[in-house]
User: Which sequence fits this backbone?
């Protein structure tokens, strides 16, 4: 910085400091406090409004069910899928080595064995475990439920439903407790954290409909004849 520039800047800085000093000395202290307090209150209101909006937007979800066989099912499916993937990759090499034997019976048996454990086993496991509910949550705001199952690739599948979407079969099938929107699901009533939700899902809280007479009594039929 040159001397001329320094000489020009110094008076400007001095005037600025004098103005600041004059404002602080002439302005009452209570007015400065009120200004700061107003600014702080406005910021505080804005902050509280922001947090209250976020709180209202959150959905209240309660965990009510956990399937005790969930870790075992996931482990078996992962092992089956990984072994099937290895089998698919190794099939060209295995088929080449087996074909060199020239024995038709050995070739047919080996092809059947490899194909069964590569393709049929994952499909069979999925058919058995696809109905098993691993988790279930209750949404308090809407009164609905979210059931979670495991799909073919061991990924979580969600089904949102209400008690009106549930159909309880008269004769439960294999690994089937209820039908939700036409999808069969299996639930273990012993592991519900809140049994009242199981009663609500199964419709135990609804009045019973006793249909004892599907046909009119015998006396009414004789009168009609």
Assistant:
């Amino acid at each position: 910085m040159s001397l001329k520039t320094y000489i020009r800047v110094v008076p400007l800085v001095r005037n600025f400091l004098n103005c600041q000093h004059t404002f602080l000395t002439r302005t009452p202290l209570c007015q400065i406090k009120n200004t700061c307090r107003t600014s702080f209150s406005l910021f505080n209101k804005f902050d509280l409004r922001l947090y209250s909006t976020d709180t209202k937007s959150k959905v209240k979800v309660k965990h009510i069910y956990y399937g005790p066989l969930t870790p075992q099912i996931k482990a078996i499916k992962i092992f089956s899928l990984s072994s099937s993937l290895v089998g698919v990759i190794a099939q060209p090499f295995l088929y080449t080595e087996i074909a060199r034997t020239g024995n038709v019976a050995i070739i047919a048996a080996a092809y059947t064995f490899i194909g069964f454990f590569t393709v049929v086993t994952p499909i069979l496991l999925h058919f058995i475990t696809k109905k098993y509910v691993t988790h279930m949550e209750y949404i308090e705001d809407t009164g609905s439920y979210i059931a979670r199952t495991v799909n073919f690739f061991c990924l979580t599948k969600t089904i949102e439903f209400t008690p009106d979407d549930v159909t309880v079969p008269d004769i439960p099938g294999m690994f089937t407790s209820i039908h939700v929107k036409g999808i069969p699901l299996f639930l273990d009533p012993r592991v519900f954290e809140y049994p009242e939700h199981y009663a609500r899902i199964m419709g135990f809280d609804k009045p019973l409909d006793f249909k004892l007479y599907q046909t009119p009594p015998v006396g009414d039929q004789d009168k009609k004849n």
In short: DSSP finds six helices and seven strands in the chain. The mean pLDDT is 77.
